[in-house]
Design goal:
Residues 206-286 form the Aldehyde oxidase/xanthine dehydrogenase a/b hammerhead domain. The protein is of the alpha+beta class. Helix content is 27%, strand content 23%. Residues 1-19, 25-31 and 35-44 have low confidence and may be disordered.
Length: 724
């Protein structure tokens, strides 16, 4: 999903605070500045400077571990020449116009867009603030602005010097330039700095960082919800007799949508215990009652039929068939991919408290544009009456950006039935999280490829069956075209390879199990299928896997040229040689190119992933350390999924309960990862998700290279391998 955006993006807002300078853009899109001391100031700042000279960067994207507080702060601090050690951060309030994601047109974090959409916006905010301060200092000292220098938060000219705070009052009276001068790459001190420490390191290592789970308000009560054990079930009735014997139990109520029963307690434990003591009668008349084997079979059956949708190519699955049937060699493969849970470290939670004007939502809020109106509608409020206090989130991987704002909606319903008098904190247990749905969608692929006598592709028929994430949501208008959910086929339809006569067919699967984007969205399955198939073509035609990919990329095409560079870098750092018993894969996602070489050891059925070599081309590297961490994290998260994880159902009920039966990667299983960042001065692209897609197929291709076994049905344990 690759979206372009203009470099202008500041928007009108409002300022607060007695002695601070704020920089933003007014309603006409012109850079402006002001302070709380300035008359008639109505700005939405990205940069705040107090009287002590401390710079605070207002972060419009929430922080779930991916590094936004560091990356966005780097952009401002670079241009304003601040002292990195003293710069602070604060999360932006909910305002889906003023703090919108420029790619989405709404306030939200996702799609590996945080730095990409903010790159010029935050740099210009820093540059505008610097310009104001320089002119203020020049006026104060009676010198020409050209004689002034700024370094580490200190402004100086000749024998004059002072920190930023000394010039706030004058700067607030000046008009910002419409287009501030920004630095050229050769002037960067912070952008690209290999040793820059993360802004959230101290708080997270000392325990002072406040996560949503840490919220504890006076008079607060706790809520836990008994959800239907089968997706789509609704409450008929309930009995709370046993719950009344639980110490700290307050009350139990059916949620207004009848999707569950909420139990209130004086603490988390009493709420959980009371919830578990409830006896609920359910209506399963429209619920999912099938088991996993039946669901897989239903997906595969759709592949036997004519595709519901043909994806934007002149050639269709029907007219490619003669080309493949007449080929010298054919390759056929069926893939199945299971449901997967997001399994974030911090389980879902949300606190809602009453205020004089409405309510305040305390949350690691990933998409305020969705959360705010959802909560407002449930509580009979206007969206502007819903304040959102964004806090750190302990992971998300997409789960907190639900189009239905499901857990925020549950918190609002719990608050509503509680009487709206005191703060209510909804907490999901790990078991709630594992069984609660909104999984990576189950999917099935079927591919048939024809090769000529020279091993070249003459036709490629690729069919997919998967439930749409976007249809029926507020994102449908943006992401669904001609009936096709772009996230269902991305990675196949957007492949960089020059594949002749490729037909892509999609059929939507329908059932009550709720699905959601999961780290790297559609690329989680499409990359695995595509890169396994490419490896099969290489093996069948006797070509080196890397040379085959290079032969199908055109250096005259910008993104393909970037991929070529990534491939060459990973080939160099890994020492790849033709005939190696290793695995290779590469993939383009979120406008970023990643290439991976995997070294594995196989002893009978025991597999250990020894090392991953990764090369990433993601434009200018704002924070190299963060980029490497995201590549490593994406690889580890991806390995967890492909090796052994799956969410399975028995008669419609989820089998997995907690981490013992949805086991994450353990420390000894995590391979060494060597990451090469391809040098670039291009605009930054995504890094939070692109490391995941090629990791799985690289490992699978390495296993094939050593054993001759193709793994097409995930997780890999289904092929009889154990991972140690």
């Amino acid at each position: 999903m690759n979206i372009s955006v203009s470099r202008r993006g500041f928007l009108k807002g409002s300022a607060a605070g007695a002695t601070a300078l704020f920089v933003g853009v007014n309603a006409k899109g012109v850079l402006a500045a002001g302070s709380s001391a300035a008359a008639n100031t109505d700005l939405n700042p990205f940069v705040k400077i107090d009287a002590d000279g401390v710079v605070t960067v207002i972060i419009k994207h929430f922080e779930m571990g991916q590094g936004t507080t560091t990356g966005l702060t780097t952009l401002v601090a670079e241009e304003i020449d601040a002292n990195w050690d003293s710069v602070k951060t604060d999360f932006a309030p909910a305002d889906d116009v003023r703090y919108k994601n420029l790619f989405f047109g709404a306030q939200g974090t996702g799609g590996s867009t945080s730095i990409a959409n903010s790159f010029m916006q935050y740099r210009e905010a820093g540059a505008a603030a610097r310009d104001l301060l320089v002119r203020a200092a020049a006026q104060s000292w009676g010198v020409d602005a050209s004689t002034i220098s700024v370094e580490n938060g200190i402004i100086s000219s000749g024998g004059n010097s002072g920190h930023f705070g000394e010039f706030v009052a004058i700067a607030a009276t000046l008009e910002a330039v419409e287009k501030p001068t920004i630095k050229t790459p050769d002037q960067f001190k912070l952008i690209g700095n290999e040793k820059l420490h993360r802004k959230d390191n101290h708080g997270k290592t000392t325990g002072t960082a406040i996560f949503a789970m840490d919220v504890n308000l006076p008079g607060m009560i706790y809520a836990a919800i008994m959800h239907s054990p089968k997706f789509g079930g609704t409450v008929v009735s309930f009995d709370d007799s046993a719950a009344k014997d639980v110490g700290g139990f307050i009350a139990a109520q059916v949620l207004p949508n009848k999707a569950g029963v909420v139990a209130f307690g004086k603490n988390t434990w009493s709420a959980f215990q009371a919830r578990d003591a409830l006896s609920v009668e359910w209506d399963f008349s429209v619920a999912e009652t099938r088991s996993t084997d039946a669901l897989i079979a239903a997906h595969q059956a759709l592949l036997d039929e004519k595709p519901e949708f043909e994806i934007g190519h002149e050639i269709t699955t029907e007219n490619v068939a003669p080309l493949i049937d007449g080929a010298s060699k054919t390759i056929e493969a069926d893939f199945t991919f299971p449901y997967l849970a997001h399994a974030s470290m911090e389980s879902l939670n949300c606190t809602i408290e009453p205020t004089d004007f409405g309510v305040r939502v305390h949350d690691g809020c990933q998409f305020p544009t969705i959360t705010r109106p959802t909560v407002a509608a449930i509580l009979g409020l206007k969206p502007e009456q819903v304040e959102i206090k964004t806090l750190y989130a302990g992971g998300s991987f997409g789960r907190r950006a639900n189009p239905t704002a499901d857990y925020n909606a549950e918190a609002a319903m719990a608050f509503a039935v509680s009487g709206k008098k005191v703060p209510v904190k909804l907490v999901w247990s790990r078991e709630d999280d594992m069984k609660g749905g909104y999984y990576r969608a189950m999917s099935a692929h079927r591919a048939k490829i024809g090769l000529d006598a020279d091993g070249k592709i003459v036709g490629w028929d690729h069919r997919l069956a998967i439930k749409s994430i976007m249809k029926g949501t507020s994102f449908e208008g943006m992401m669904v075209r001609d009936g096709v959910d772009a996230t269902s086929v991305e990675g196949v339809s957007e492949s960089l390879y020059a594949i002749p006569n490729q037909a892509i067919g999609l059929t939507d699967f329908h059932n009550p199990v709720p699905v959601l984007w999961w780290r790297s969205v559609g690329h989680t399955h499409t990359a695995y299928a595509m890169e396994t198939l490419m490896d099969m073509v290489a093996a069948e035609s006797g070509q080196d896997p890397i040379e085959l990919r290079l032969s199908m990329l055109d250096a005259a095409q910008p993104n393909q040229a970037r991929m070529i560079e990534a491939i060459k870098h990973v080939r160099e750092i890994s020492g790849w040689k033709e005939g190696d018993k290793r695995g290779f894969a590469c993939h383009f996602s979120f406008n970023t190119c990643v290439a991976v070489v995997a070294d594995v050891s196989v002893d009978d059925t025991s597999v250990h992933v020894n090392k991953l070599f990764m090369a990433v081309e993601c434009g200018v590297a704002v924070n190299p350390d963060v980029i490497r961490a995201q590549m490593e994290g994406g690889a580890g998260y991806g390995l967890t999924a492909i090796l052994r994880n799956q969410i399975t159902l028995t008669d419609g009920e989820v089998d997995q309960y907690n981490f013992p039966d949805y086991e994450l990667l353990r420390n000894p299983e995590m391979p060494e990862v060597e990451v090469a960042i391809v040098p670039s001065n291009g605009a930054p692209t995504g890094v939070g998700e692109p490391g995941l897609p090629p990791t799985g197929p690289a490992v699978a291709n390495a296993i094939f290279a050593q054993t001759g076994t193709r793994i097409l049905d995930l997780p890999m344990t289904k092929a009889g391998f154990d991972f140690v």
